[in-house]
Known about the structure:
The chain has one domain. By secondary structure, it is an all-alpha fold. It starts with 7 loop residues before the first helix and ends with a helix. Helix content is 69%, strand content 0%. The chain has helices spanning 8-23, 28-35, 39-49, 55-64. The radius of gyration is 13 Å and the shape is globular. The chain is built from four helices and no strands.
Amino acid sequence: MARKRYKPEEIVAKLRQVDVLVSQGQNMVDAIRQIGVSEVTYYRWRQEFGRLLTPTGLLRIVLAV
């Protein structure tokens, strides 16, 4: 089975989806499984792309384009 490569926009969307599911009361592990990635991948993405979840991070992306 081939590995799926996610674009940065898709990764940020998945990170936000986990945040929403957890805020709705779902367990963190179950929320991560629901988006279809492993815990290791989630935490790696969180470390790398977590800064993009802040309003200033999104502003930097918009200004860079």
